[in-house]
Amino acid sequence: MTKLPHTVSRSVLLDAPAERVWEAVTDESALAEWLAPEVELEPHEGGEIVCRYEDGEERRGQVELVEEAERLAFQWRRQGAEPSRVELVLDSVAERTILTVTETAGPSACVAPRLGALRALLRGRLVLA
Amino acid sequence: MASPGLPTPPPGLGDARVGAVFGALADPTRRHLIEALAHEPGATATGLAAELPISRQAVAKHLQLLGRAGLVRSRRSGREARFELEAGALTEAAAWIGAVGAEWDDRLGRLQRLL
């Protein structure tokens, strides 16, 4: 039987401009205020992400995509569990920001990185050798 | 003053959530078939087509696609195959969706209060 892709999406309107939201989403001490009790993050492609919880649980993964003040994507996994992909997208609305988070596990989690590269190409940021 | 969050789909296997989560269920006809099978396990393609404005052949194609996605299974019984939901797949997916959704609700709530 094929394993089903699971995906969860949430959007929230934040009362702060994109630059402040970006900081809250990439700065380790800010992340420790909302993402997990302890966070280590190297906010560049290939960088590591580690989240630690009070019960000792850890999630580890790798940063996939960083588009300043626009998009952050990383993969992570609990010990012994399947990896999933998390993408945070920032959309400016005047002085406020809509943050959309999508977490995907299963087969489609592998497709998404290619979409990221395609999007970067369309924006002229990826040069084909 | 805190800004309200945008409306998000309710948790659980509501119609909108199933479509969003499973690519195979992006089609409303297929979602209808899943609902119908939930109420009537063991239905045939002919029986299911009777409730829809599409042919038995079209229903059979949809059921085949759902079968490949692991959502529906079939068994031979008499002249026609009978179809049932793969409850395990849906339950597991629903549990993951529920848990992960709740985690993000907590996190985004804290982020909203922070900013």
Q: How are the elements arranged and paired?
A:
The complex is a heterodimer of chains A (129) and B (115).
Chain A: E1 6-14, H1 18-26, H2 28-31, E2 38-41, E3 48-52, E4 58-67, E5 71-78, E6 84-93, E7 96-105, H3 112-122
Antiparallel strand pairs in A: 1-7, 2-3, 3-4, 4-5, 5-6, 6-7
Chain B: H1 15-21, H2 28-39, E1 43-44, H3 45-49, H4 56-68, E2 72-77, E3 80-85, H5 87-114
Antiparallel strand pairs in B: 1-3, 2-3
Commentary on this structure:
The complex is a heterodimer of chains A (129) and B (115). By secondary structure, chain A is of the alpha+beta class. Helices cover 19% and strands 43% of the residues of chain A. Chain A has helices at residues 18-26, 28-31, 112-122; strands spanning 6-14, 38-41, 48-52, 58-67, 71-78, 84-93, 96-105. In chain A, strand 3 (48-52) and strand 4 (58-67) form a beta hairpin. Chain A starts with 5 loop residues before the first strand and ends in a 7-residue tail after the last helix. Chain B has a 3-stranded antiparallel β-sheet with strand order 1-3-2. The longest helix of chain B is centred in the C-terminal third of the chain and has 28 residues, at 87-114. The N and C termini of chain B lie close together (11 Å).
